[in-house]
Amino acid sequence: MGAFVISKRFNDEYKFVFTSRKGKVIFTSLSYELKFEGEEDIEKFKANVDQAKFLKFKGSGGKYFFKLMLGEVHFATSRKYTTELLLQKGIKEIVNYASKAEILDFSSSESIFEDELVEEEEVED
Asked: Domain locations in the chain?
């Protein structure tokens, strides 16, 4: 189904990515100073995905990407694709699944697997 995954950048700003059903990143948002700003934009995008515009480009290295526009505002940039067909599949994934995608928040500084790591270390001792 795809998911929006919120995380923190090294500069302590927030971003989110939209991942495909197979877990591959399709696009990355711009940076947000506050997490709730990103969350609001995700909800706004989910409600208005039918109004999104995809501006397609071919980079100097020959790879394809798109800028995702919501209204007149640059919302996110896609990953690089080797072919135009793969780029089109990425766009189709967004159109078909973004409005139903769940939101996962991995922005806290604590490791979500910390307890499991401690248990593994105890088992190895």
From this structure: 3-124
